[in-house]
Every structure is written in structure tokens, then in C-alpha cells.
Amino acid sequence: MKIILKLLLTAVAVFILAHILPGVQVDGYISALIVALVLGVLRLIVKPILVVLTLPITILTLGIFLLFINAFIILMADYFVDGFGVKNIWYGILFSVLLSIFQSILYTFLKSDKRS
Questions:
Q1: Between the CA of residue 110 and those of 31, 58, 82, 97, what are the distances in Å?
Q2: CA 48 to chain centre
Q3: Is pLDDT above 90 for 109?
Q4: In the chain, which ranges are continuous DSSP H helix?
Q5: Among 103, 102, 74, which Cα is nearest to 87's?
Q6: Which of 75, 88, 69, 70 is nearest to 35 (CA)?
Q7: Could you read off the pLDDT of 56-105 as tens digits, one per residue?
């Protein structure tokens, strides 16, 4: 159940960010939902491979290169989803950073109260 809620919250974040950032566009909420699903799959499958392949440059840049990997994942989602568009890699980096911030804020609402 939490996975579905996280997917829906990510779609809301994608939809909001697409309206805030001028270089990112999404056609509607269904497209945002598809983008959230595609991003989840790409982060699960492609991102670990890219992180391992680019480990030396990531170490040299003290982890800053991970921003470019995240932007590349966003641009891949742009390629796979018709109703989603990102102008360039810089908007991809900005979108990725803001999406991570939005997700961390929205996911705090999903944490269950654990009382001892």
C-alpha cells in the first residue's frame, strides 16, 4: 500500500514541478503518474549500473557527478514518456534536486507513528 501512495505522491510532485519550472512540461496527471512509474523503474534498474560504471569520476568529484546521473535518468524518462518533456540537462538537474526535496517532504506524511 505504501508503494502505491509513494507513486501517487511522486506523481503529484512531478505535476507541481512541471508547472513551476519553465523547462519541464507534463501534459496531465496521468502523464505525471506514468513519469513517476518510469522514474521508479529506471532508478531501480539503470541507476545502480550507472553508479558502478561511473564510480571513479564520482569519487573524483566527491559525489557531485551523481547529480548528472540523476539528470540522465530524468532525460531517459523524457525519452520514454510522450507527455513529459525536459528542455536540457540543466533543467534535468534542477528537476531532480527539487523532486528529491519534494519527495522527502511528502514521504514524511507516510511515516507511521511508532509508540513504545
A1: 23, 32, 30, 21
A2: 14
A3: no
A4: 2-20, 29-53, 55-60, 65-80, 89-107
A5: 74
A6: 75
A7: 999 999 999 999 999 999 999 999 999 999 999 999 999 999 999 998 88
Q: What is the pTM of this model?
A: 0.86
Distance CA 63, CA 27 (A): 33
**Alpha-carbon distance 37 to 35, whole Å?**
5
Amino acid letter for position 112: S
Backbone angles phi, psi at 88, to 5 degrees: -155, -175
Contact between residue 56 and residue 77 where contact means Cβ atoms under 8 Å apart: no
3-class DSSP state of 87: coil
Is-contact 105 34, C-beta < 8 A?
no
The predicted-structure confidence for 30-59, as pLDDT tens digits, reads as follows: 999 999 999 999 999 999 999 999 999 999
Under 8 Å between Cβ of 83 and 31: yes
Cell of 50: 550507472
